[in-house]
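Input record (one chain):
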Amino acid sequence: METYVHGYSETEALRLTDQADTLARFLHETVRYPEGSHVLEAGCGVGAQSLHLARNSPNAHFTAFDASIESVRKACYRVAREGMANIGFENADVFDLPYAPEHFDHVFVCFLLEHLQDPLRALSGLKSVLKKGGSITVIEGDHGSYYCHPRSAPADRVVQCLIDIQAHKNGDALIGRRLYPLLARAGFRKVQVMPRMIYVDSGKPDLIEGFTKRTFIAMVRGVKEEAISLGLIDEKSWDQGIADLIRTTLPDGTFCYTFFHATAWK
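The corresponding structure, as predicted from the sequence alone:
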């Protein structure tokens, strides 16, 4: 299994929670599953997205899996604490699924494909455990869609460091723009992809805190040591880039990022 670029620290678990809670109204608003349906969530991590899925479809049953045993443990604790009974967590590898063919009514994937060396193979495997006529929902970001005001070359450079590090680990931080061809090549039909832009200015203080600071900037900050050790940037340039990203959170700053929400059918 490929290495998760952001790591498995408690800080990262908190960032994932902030991200899921902040973005829920943008990414999960239209994701609803019928009563009695059985849904597979691939790459659930610490269960941050899982809670929103389960709450939005209380009469569906969710099976969520992740390759990290520690993440699964945290997800189980989180859901038990919330008292949710319609979701269960398992340790599994997306490239070696332990499920019978055509077992699930629907599949949900969020922020997983960007970390995989072979996302097409992963989608093909997920398609095999999906019933004929079932749906797949895939949500991924695209770091190349980021832009900000004031415009900053140093800020662009630190974001590019994250993109380069993810590529170094055989992932693709620009995968959002590839969802349509990937799903089509995997053999799914009726593929539809919709952009979900997150635009932040001083009139949206919740997004400044929850997304710009605690999701995006925190994500970039997490690769500082690796970026410097790989010779992608020096510490002074890195600090300037982060300072310029923080500068976008001031009253005259703005920040934009686009996620891509895809649905398709087997």
